[in-house]
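Need a sequence for this fold. Nothing fancy.
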């Protein structure tokens, strides 16, 4: 029997099979892999080479804060690495703060703690378990006993949505084959704008397909997919980037490609890249969301809520 869910998924599969070629990387290995040549290195973001810049640090092709310890880029110099971590990754870290605590995603300094604004309530990951201290004046967590649900009510640290989007674009450019970079010269220049106020692009189209899959670590390792348009006459973006880790997926369409001149100002219909857990999770359905990351100013006091299911509640004496 076909239900609405499997029809949705079939439509997604058909769309991507018809229009895009996929390159998939599963980070399910434990030794380090290096993208690009170690000799004669040129930074793909600033175009500089030794001795005008240096390549002493190991640049993570995908941020370490989402748990990447193995995929390293030889295409990124120390200066760009340092700049991007401040201008882009910091915002991605703030956007995903509660996610990483609740899903126990360890970065350089381990799993981050999550605190309420007054710091009286907090969630920490200690000794292999999540510990929640919820203050009565500012409850960070409530139980729904009937549904076996724990609800976390938090606020994100102030962040800039467009910088989160740029961080995803930067991940895409980091894993892209070298010969493709030439199609994204304008994208690279746009990523290199240091101050958000100097980014004058007015748009509402920096959108991201996002999903949350309930349950314990449904995506146990990071998976990234680079999607490339099959033909240049299709009225679709040249490339898309999908990333899944832990309970989350993000998908964007990489802006400003020279191959996309023919789609400017055209109405484009896009669908989510299929989530393999669609309608199969015993913990409930995958929840989909369209996020708009166009805003180029700091967003404060944004709610970041989460609902987790549990089997049993044990009262500790
Ligand atoms: Zn550089």
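Here you go.
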């Amino acid at each position: 029997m076909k239900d609405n869910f499997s029809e949705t998924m079939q439509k997604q599969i058909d769309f991507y099979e018809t229009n895009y070629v996929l390159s998939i990387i599963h980070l399910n290995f434990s030794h380090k892999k290096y993208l690009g040549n170690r000799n004669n290195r040129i930074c793909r973001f600033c175009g500089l080479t030794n001795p005008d810049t240096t390549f002493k640090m190991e640049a993570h092709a995908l941020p370490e804060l989402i748990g990447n310890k193995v995929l390293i880029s030889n295409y990124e110099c120390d200066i760009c690495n340092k700049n991007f971590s401040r201008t882009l990754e910091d915002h991605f870290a703030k956007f995903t703060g509660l996610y990483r605590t609740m899903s126990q995603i360890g970065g350089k300094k381990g799993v981050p703690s999550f605190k309420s604004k007054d710091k009286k309530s907090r969630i920490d990951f200690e000794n292999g378990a999540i510990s929640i201290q919820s203050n009565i004046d500012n409850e960070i967590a409530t139980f729904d006993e009937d549904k076996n649900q724990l609800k976390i009510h938090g606020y994100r640290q102030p962040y800039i949505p467009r910088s989160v989007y740029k961080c995803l674009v930067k991940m895409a450019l980091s894993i892209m084959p070298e010969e493709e970079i030439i199609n994204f010269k304008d994208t690279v220049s746009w990523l290199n704008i240091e101050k958000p106020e100097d980014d004058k692009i007015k748009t509402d189209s920096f959108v991201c397909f996002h999903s949350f899959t309930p349950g314990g670590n449904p995506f146990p390792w990071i998976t990234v997919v680079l999607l490339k348009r099959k033909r240049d006459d299709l009225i679709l973006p040249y490339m898309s980037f999908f990333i899944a880790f832990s309970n989350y997926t993000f998908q964007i369409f990489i802006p400003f490609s020279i191959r996309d001149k023919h789609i400017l100002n055209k109405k484009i219909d896009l669908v989510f890249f299929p989530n393999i857990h669609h309608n199969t999770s015993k913990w409930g359905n995958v929840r989909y969301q369209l996020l708009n990351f166009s805003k180029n100013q700091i967003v404060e006091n944004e709610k970041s809520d989460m609902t987790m299911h549990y089997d049993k509640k044990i009262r500790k004496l």
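For context: The two ends are 49 Å apart (CA to CA).
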